[in-house]
Amino acid sequence: MNNLLAVVFDGVVYSSWLFLMAAGLTLIYGVMKILNIAHGSLYALGGYTAATIAGAWLAAGQAAIGSYAMLVLAALLVGVVMGPLLERGLLKWMYGKDEVVLLLVTYAAFLILEDAIKLIWGVESMLLPDPYSLPGNFHIGTLAYPVYNLLLIAMAILVGLALAWALYRTRQGKLLLAVIHDREMSATMGINVNRVYLATFTVGSMLAALGGALTAPMIAVSPGIGVEVIVLSFAVVVVGGLGSLGGAAIGALMVGIVRSAAVRYWPEAELFTIYFVMALVLIARPKGLFSAPEARKI
Amino acid sequence: MIRIGTVVFSFLVCALASTGALAQQPLKIGIVTFLSGPAAGPFGVPARNGFELVAEMLNAGTVPAPYATKGFGGRAIELVIIDEAGGPQKQVAELRNLAQRVDYVVGYISSGDCLAVAPVAEELKKLTVLFDCGTPRIFEDASYKYVFRTGPPGTMDNTSAALYALERHPNVKSIAGINQNYAWGQDSWTDFEAAMKALKPGIEVKTSQMTKLFAGQFGAEISTLLSSGAELIHSSFWGGDLEGLVLQGAPRGLFQKHIVVLSAGEPGINRLGTRIPDGTIIGARGPFGPFAPDTEFNRWFKTTFQDRYNLPPNYASYKATNALLGLKAAYEKAQKAGAANPSQEQIIAAFENLSFEGVGGTVKLSLGKGHQATMENAIGTAKTVGGELRIVDVKRYAPEQINPPEGLKSEAWIKSGFRK
Amino acid sequence: MSRDRTLPALAVACALLLAAAALAPQWLLFLLALALAKGLVVLGLVLLMRTGLVSFGQGLYFGLGAYAAALLSHRAGFADAALMIVAGTVCAAAVAAILGLLLARYREIFFAMLSLAFSMILYGALVKSAALGSTDGFNLHAKAFAGMALAAGLERRVFFAVSVVAMFCVAWLLHRYLASHWGRLSAAIRDNELRVEYLGASVYRVVYVNYVAAGALAGMGGAFAALAVGHVDPETAYWTTSGEFVFIAILGGTGNVLAPFLSAAVFEGLRTVANQYAPNVWQMSLGLAMLAIIMFLPGGLWTLLRRRSAA
Question: Which CATH class, in words, describes the domain spanning B155-284+378-415?
């Protein structure tokens, strides 16, 4: 019984992390129809910035509790700087081009950012373990788990609820939904689509950076952490249905728990699980689990 | 008559002058190491630092005996450094380009790259010295004339780790592993598992976790290990994965409840320091870093490196240095045999079966028909003493104890119980 | 309407490359051999793109072709290059025939993602296989071609010459195909699938055939690449390899069958230059180059040639 509980908990922790990444990605795709490969770099930037800011905070002898705020601050900073930079500076000139071309543009941005990160922070890894070990452990049966994992789950739920509320309850959110549904019509109705794009990309970047910032205390922040994340987030988003926030959550949960079970009971298969899940879902429901019905032009 | 004499004389002068000029032209050595990607931090850049430092010292003649001659036998050396990132196909292309611009090639950290470039170096007839990659397959599956390896094969990392673990903890009944799911991790685990089973038949394997390379997050894997009931856990993790394992595992008691063996953990010492819990068994893939015997030569290397880079050298830096020192030793041995500017063939003849003094210890090219180096290995235990991480309880293993004899493949040799 | 100059251009290119096969230095030969091999894969990709589909999983067939060719020499002991090339192509085509039945139903991003998933499944299987060397892969040696033993040192030149001939035949065939009824149907499917169905043609069948053809081409390219490099490893099936093919396709544009080969050569050259002269920032250089091309040459490099000849 304890084993099962551990599998579920591990799965949920992993899912929370996945959700933070997938939420931003699905939002950006839903609104702008861009599959943003640079999302991985934003994740890495979030991690590096968090390690730098929180590291400096702690080194200056400030209260340890403040380091958590520093993590969130780092994410906001990255989002607010990189979002407009990428969207206005690069993507704006590419709208109207083929979807695949846009994807390659974000891939080029990813390559550039990877080297930029290396130039700024060097190749050595950065460690920021204090926020992770500070809150101590709790136990499921005999297994010790860091309380930090609970923080991660709480953060993911908070972000999910906040996004859902913002999308479905506020006026701005409804405008965004309108743009997701039909860009042309929204523009015709007087919605400033350009501003919606900017806002969406900024929020998406913030979410990716938040994923990186919250992960920074657990790992060694080093070059290349952005690469693996990309394919994982894509898989989750595709499984859940592009543009659907609820789909991203369910997709993340599915992938996280299946992976956790594989690690425990069938470790050899771990490499495959995510692609199997993705292939299975796509075969059963070609557009993902929660995709919005689309009108087709004849 | 006089005119002919003048002509002959001027010709001779020109010839001498040109050889003199040739002697001034530096020897170009192509260096291939990781400058980008996750392997750059723990290995690629420390190796590059080692290469650059030693090349500079050699050219200035400030390396202690027996390497006091400037450069290689009086001739300056110049390094041409390229990035090893991009995968074996790309590296094959790069080698073909590089080979035209340089006299010799030294490099390669990734086993996949080593396997791919060795036949190409042979085809191009370019003297190539592999310095870090671990796979024993290079010289066990084929033989080469132009390819040498001054780094010891990876087999000994895990055979010596198994020997040490069982010497310190003879009552271990069950083991588990967490390794990266690619050739290095798979081979390390296979070697360790086979060695443990050969040394202590009946030992049980509880679980073998094979994580995705650079996964970084091991929550589920650590939970599985903690509840597996294994007494000893083996890991060949390096870089960000190693740091993640320690950062995530230590607070959860992974290192307290189990004996953890990090077969290639030495570079992590500089990065993680006292975060590595006491009792962790660590290897350095050779007598490097904290395992280097306290000789004047080793002390020179450590202090010079530390002064220049503000960091102690890790095993990648040691192995890089040894590659250049080995090549120099071979070059100068060929010179002593009579050739002022030895050709590649002469250097190769000198290099085969060479034994030279490297940083960390003696390097003997005793396997692979005289092309593969062996060194002793040293394993120790981590202990925090006075706020600093020290390696205590170091045990050294002679190369014959931990490497298969010439002609026998590593896997078969381990399974036979390390038979001579 | 300008005259179709493709055949003469192909013939000239072929002649030049055959001359290179005999005379060029080794490093240039290698660059061109790899460019041709990748060009073959991208040709298949261009065929799919003309049907309105972008596959992010051509690495699957590229890897299959490479491994099939390599395994023939490694396991079965056949060191004959002709056999290897055929094996690579047939193996890839067979798998494409099976997977195509499923994939031909998907479009757009889902086609891309599903093809990516399958290529990553092959990658995972290769990584797990210790017998195949896992991520280290293994080397292959081909010493003969179609029964004729080759002198050492000549092999690479002969294989390159063979790949040039293959390029000529395949490119010409594809050019005829694209100009034919099926080719025009493919273009129609890209424009508006539903109308094609209404007109009575089977969209599924056309997409399926194109998919299998692209898979076979990728397999052939994989076999040639394996012969050129002398080594195979699972990276050939990884998503970044597939992404590279897509980039080369966009770089060249879908205008003509020669474009993929041209852009593959440019890409290989670019990457070599970037790695040699800017080893610390080669990724950034590549990214900037990509952006420059996308911004200023959106139709691919081919439009550069088109404009010149039109003017």
Answer: alpha beta
